[in-house]
């Protein structure tokens, strides 16, 4: 399974087309259609659509019995305005592929071209284009879809580009690779009053002002220690946009982060206690809800060994690296198969993911593709 120069040119052009038409989590309908159309000429044996939302699974069968091996990429973009000046810049205001999922899809599509020309000898390869990774809902929704049982894998592999690592180099480790995280939405409610008589109402302003630094102070431990915890206030609002009303409503959104799921439960309990204390002390009611829930991610040792074997065979430089504070919902696939993700360097000085001037380096497409192709060949023949 070797990519030609024309293949690479086609994949780069397609990646840039995807970049210009970003769709955020839960809205990836046109992106899913692009995937189906681009891979239709490879003659897949089966295509499942609408998995867990807009997910697409493209299946290539071998002639003999064998394992099911899944390779996963993400469909969704981010609700961020792109400020870069590339010719393929986002054509949709306020949305952009600033995490590289367009490039991940191109790498998976490259594998599809290879499998279309040379089917596995045994088992089957499944290319999973997963929706809604950015809000943590996609993998769980795919796994909950009853049709997923029809393509349940023994092995699952993925990659993520990573600025800060030398271009084309790889970091790959066993065990914990991504932190657990979740968004905590705090709503505080009191009673409005005329701005000239604030004492006749119950304002959430003092509680909001006190809670933000106290939540941030929940941070503990030195990353990547087991007791590491982090709280980042990401949004705050109080009252209406009016000068004549002392407010009754306040919200704080905070992202909680821990090394592992057990630590997350403890961190949530500490944060909830702070909220109750602040609300009770100010005569407010409080509501807490959780969003964008990511479990921590573990790399299975056997799956890591298979990726290392492929990296060595393809002469891709790699090192163990270290866990990442960022979260990733790929870890949920570890509940159904031996899973591992590797991190493919986007360049030491490349803009970071989620930065408004980030763009996926096209040079990574053939590198990621050959690692996946070698892994598929080693497992499926």
From TrEMBL:
Keywords: Hydrolase, Manganese, Metal-binding. InterPro entries: Amidohydrolase, Bact_exopeptidase_dim_dom, Peptidase_M20, Peptidase_M20_dimer. The lineage of its organism: Bacteria, Pseudomonadati, Pseudomonadota, Alphaproteobacteria, Hyphomicrobiales. Its cofactor is Mn(2+). The keyword Manganese applies. PANTHER family: CLAN MH, FAMILY M20, PEPTIDASE T-LIKE METALLOPEPTIDASE, PEPTIDASE M20 FAMILY MEMBER. Mn(2+) binds at residues 99, 101, 134, 160, 354. GO terms for molecular function: hydrolase activity; metal ion binding. The Mn(2+) ion enhances activity. NCBIfam families: amidohydrolases (TIGR01891). The keyword Nuclease does not apply. It comes from the Bacteria. Residues 182-278 form the Peptidase M20 dimerisation domain. This is Amidohydrolase.
